[in-house]
Design brief:
Helix content: 25-40%
Strand content: 5-15%
Radius of gyration: 24 Å
Number of helices: 5
Order of helices and strands: HHEEEHEHEEEHEE
Structural class: alpha/beta
CATH topology of the largest domain: Aminopeptidase
Number of domains: 2
């Protein structure tokens, strides 16, 4: 395994300490201006400004329009990829922070403002190191749109970002990270194999027969049936998945009915 000599470690720390206040300010700015998937126009512009100021070549307009790929050359034939996501979530912020979201109903609840800031900071530090001596390997910086269910990563791949068809050589390896508030400050965690879960979606429509809530015997109540389905789904993991393996099923939305005294015809 390659190691970093003490002098290089100190240079890296020095560069980080020098720009850290600016990165904190950048993260607050991104947090205050969240954008949903494929709508990250302002965020993409901020990223491009950061790369330009650092002297990092980049191509914008990727991955559906807002993705950005930056690149620093190096001695090797293939690049190391560093990746961050940029989109926010449709959630109303209630933190009360001075840098809270300025957009009603949208906030950076999953930390992508931090991810974007960290990758911009990495680009700045590596660019400063490259100005002194060539990097041992080329490094590409992939700022991805629409991670929250929008398949932005797939669209960046389809554009050829990993294959050397956009900027720089093909990727040898790719690294990403995710902020984890439960861990102490300064701690980085990893593990062999899978780290986080992939996701799939499901939607179930329960069709019954509507009626008056005072006469449930004349209806076929889909609310009751749907509640049993939600409960039963929790047994899938408990009784069908190997206990040493990881799995989770979450029901995050249930909709049906239009009045307190009406049994609806359907529940989704």
């Amino acid at each position: 395994m390659a190691t970093i000599d003490h002098e290089l470690q100190q240079r890296i720390r020095s560069h980080i300490e020098r720009i850290l206040p600016e990165l904190v300010e950048l993260r607050h700015d991104l947090h205050a201006h969240p954008e949903l998937g494929y709508e990250e126009q302002r965020t993409s512009g901020v990223v491009q400004d950061q790369l330009s100021a650092a002297g990092v070549d980049f191509v914008a307009g990727l991955g559906g329009g807002t993705g950005v790929l930056g690149h620093l050359p190096g001695k090797a034939d293939r690049a190391v990829g560093l990746r961050a996501d940029m989109d926010a979530l449709p959630i109303t912020e209630q933190t009360g922070c001075p840098w809270s979201s300025n957009t009603d109903g949208i906030m950076h609840a999953c930390g992508h403002d931090g991810h974007t800031t960290m990758l911009a900071g990495a680009a700045r530090v590596l660019s400063a190191l490259a100005a002194d001596s060539p990097l041992p390997q080329p490094v590409s910086f992939l700022f991805q749109p629409a991670e929250e269910g929008g398949a932005g990563a797939l669209r960046m791949c389809e554009d050829g970002c990993l294959e050397g068809r956009v900027l720089g050589p093909a990727f040898k390896s790719m690294f990403g990270l995710h902020g984890w508030p439960d861990w102490p400050l300064g701690v980085v965690g990893s593990r062999p194999g899978a780290m986080l879960a992939a996701s799939d979606r499901f939607e179930i429509t329960v069709e019954g027969r509507g009626g008056h809530a005072a006469m449930p015997h004349t209806a076929r109540d889909p609310v009751y049936a749907a509640s049993l389905i939600v409960t039963a789904l929790q047994q899938v993991v408990a009784r069908n998945v190997n206990p040493v393996e990881g799995a989770v099923i979450s029901v995050t939305s249930i909709e049906g009915g239009s009045g307190f005294n009406i049994i609806p015809g359907t529940v989704t």
